[in-house]
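Risk register update: the risk that structure generation would not scale has been downgraded. Supporting records follow, first protein first.
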Amino acid sequence: MRYEYDYLVIGSGIAGMSFALKVSRAGYRVALICKTTLEEANTNLAQGGVASVTNLEVDNFEKHINDTMIAGDWLSDVKAVEKVVREAPSQIEELLGWGVDFDRKENGEFDLHREGGHSEFRILHHADNTGAEIQSSLVAAVKRDKNIDIFEHHFAVEIITQHHLGKIVTRRTPDITCYGAYVLNEQTGKVDTFLARVTLMATGGVGATYTTTTNPLIATGDGIAMVYRAKGTVKDMEFIQFHPTALYHPGDRPSFLITEAMRGYGAVLRNLDGEEFMQKYDPRLSLAPRDIVARAIDSEMKLHGTDHVYLDVTGKDAEETKKHFPNIYEKCLSLGIDITKDMIPVAPAAHYLCGGIAVNLDGESSIGRLYAVGECSRTGLHGGNRLASNSLIEAVVYADAAAKHSTGVIGGYDFRRDVPDWNDEGTVHPEEMVLITQSLKEVNQIMGYYVGIVRSDLRLKRAWNRLDILYEETEKLFKVSKPSRELCELRNLINVGYLIMRQAMERKESRGLHYTVDYPHPTGENRQSSVDKK
């Protein structure tokens, strides 16, 4: 099948759907590609909330900008930080217009939370399932929109560039252009051709690269891998944020997230002896930025030879705790843990990617007619470490920027109809799925053991050697096989793992989320903590 749309949007989280709604409003026809269903996305699992300056009596843009720069270890792009922080309030209004219901106090003001790294209470939320509230509201809006066609259970295999027209494309080719994508229809097993005047990549993160992750298992870095294979620019992949407090329950994948807002609410981290330990690592205690807290927990676990630590919220009022964190209360209770009486076992888990497809302030990638928004993009906002709850607001701010820019230039683009259809002649369905599933387990193990919270040159070199073998095996299998989602996801995970590892090897220092025992953290009063000296 061949399709033609003004816009091709690959990914259906907050970034993809808000962009689709904005360009549809301008009268353009949109194809929205979902690898599973509209409801399944990282957005849906986001608990904490959306960071925005709304209480002007105590908060201001400068404070939010400074908090973001500090958390990012001063590697953030100041222009990107200022853009997101200053445009956040207007995008909050947009979300409210789409039906998102943020919690309010009895007087009608927003009930704001505070999270690690924030100097003020500025997190808008909906109980402890803010992402699900946003996702459901946007899904309803998208389904009502007659200009948006939804393609569920469709998997983007490759973006279409001059390479598919027989031209040689390298990383030095100056005018690489995207004309759409080849997309696998999982119901028919056929790869369809989607031609578009503008393509948006909004495929989310890479958490499934690791065994222990808070991400849905569809977070396989598809967009990043596709753009990298198309010779696009990908940056800052070494900065993988491990959320400090995922619920420790062996066998769960993904891990259930215990939101940072619980620490903002007053929960305290303790070791298995019940002793507080964050005072040994940072004066901000449990509200230090995530990289410091995750390394502190990792250090305590290694010191005591344990698989987890505890998060203790038993000192707070029981009814208030249940009111603020109803989903966490119910989840833990289902496992026999009453968080109003029992401490919660927690351990770090791969959570968020701060790098990705490099884009400018308009969301444009290095490939013409291709934009990237959300977690798959590298805007420069997060630098070396994402400040809590800055991701959802980044997604809508950059979706807005990309929509405004692309609608201003799309009139000059036409369809490239000489693009050939996908050629799978001579390929067969893989006979042994065990080859794919076993390789996937190996990728997860390699990344967890060697490219985790604490790294070293030796570990990274070992990861390089192991991944290289898997890469060669998988590419050979892909060339002789009919595409399947499982095979394509494995291929993408290997590409992503390689990028994380290679860019980690290239950074000869410990900064933000990239911590290596071979290079000391640069001296700096803004970020140095005792966890970095161990």
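Supporting record for the second protein:
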Amino acid sequence: MSEVVIGAIALAIGAAIGYFIERAIRGRAYQSRDEILAQAERDGENVRKTAELTAKEDGLRRREAIEKELQGTRDELRQTERQLDKRENSLEELQEDIIKKERMLETTQQKLTEKSRSVEARDKELDKAFKQVQEQLYKVSGLDPKTATDMLLERLDRELQAETGALVMKQEQELKLQSEKMAREILGMAIQRYASAHTSETTVSTIDIPNDELKGRIIGREGRNIRAFEKATGVDVIVDDTPGVVVVSAFDSVRRETAKQALNKLIQDGRIHPTRIDEVVAETQKEMDAFIRRSGQEAAQEAGVPNLHEKLLDLMGRLHFRTSYSQNVLRHSIEVAHLTGLLAEQLGLNGTLARRCGFLHDIGKAADHEMEGGHPAVGAELLKRYGEKAEIVHAARGHHDDIRVDYIYTVLVAAADACSASRPGARRETLEKYVRRLEELEAIACGFPGVDQAYAVQAGREIRVIVDPTEINDREAAKMCRDIATAIEQSLTYPGEVKVTVLRETKVVEYAK
């Protein structure tokens, strides 16, 4: 450090000397060489002294800073030392407490040992007294110890069996009553909280025309108009002798509705030819696609099911044109969503997930005519393809009890589906079909030997069978109940489920699902 300062001073002195020499040469030529050198030496001495003072001041400042740092370190060490002293004092106090507790434990253990010895002595005395009493009883009764023990154990066994059986029956009865009461309350509250207005809809495949002259224009020259219309829409148009009516036939309800609207537009426009047919059908298909997407979005919003894939929204919108026993499937899905959510919330489960399961459980009906398999399998495949959770996929696949249930939400969806489908007003049939179904139910039941009478009640949702007690015993009645339910499942098509009740001395119940 001193060498750097001395070098800097020497450099400054040299620069000053040069400066003054140059100045003396140029501005003060009249001065002599000795005067210039003397002045330069004096100036250099001043510069040197100034530099030395500056160096000393810098050294003092650095020394003060180092001393401050050392003082701070000393303070920290003192603080740490005080904390260690406190901790050491605490440890000493804790050690004293532990020693006191150990002494107390030793005292308690000694007392327990003394009491244990006292108890052992009393036990020995009691055993001795018990043996004396036992010997006296053996002498009085005249029985040996083994026979007396066997008799006592047998009596206790009989009493315990009777008490256990009575207790089990009592607990089973109470549990059954409580579970039934709880189930009724949960279902009743869920249905009460969601009681939606429901109207049965029927897809109309007939189109009214103002006059029969339009039939010829619809057919066109050599049938070119009707062929162009059927090719563009994918439906069959039936123009028969029925006055004022044209029939549109197609398995796909969306295509049928698109064709119906397009044909109505053509009839109102009056211009019916292949080019105009293609234009109107394309325009109607765009409107139908927009309506389907809007219907799916509105239904999802009403059911409280957000963030659905666009393809799933389109499939749900297609269910607006699908009916099951005259019940609109989209409205049915919304109702099942609400009921499933309410049931789940009553049971403390995830209501949002339950609503999603209920809303999407019948989505396979929108594509079951395009994919192989029933609508549960088709729906499960679609939901899995578009990234839905395992609980939702399983609910769609198993809501008809076709597979083993792995999730509680599948059971809730099945219950809500049955509530929505079987409640009054949800589905309707023609009077002829209704009467025929009742007759078929009674005929199937009466076809079994030993059946005395059979009555279809509750609009065909229950069949009550009365058997001859002299021909059918209780076990045969139970087997008959199951056989009748199986025969109904194999022979009839019906909405919901049919309850089969066989009456003899006992009542046996099965469900044809």
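The chain has 15 helices and nine strands. On this basis the risk owner (M.S.) recommends closing the item.
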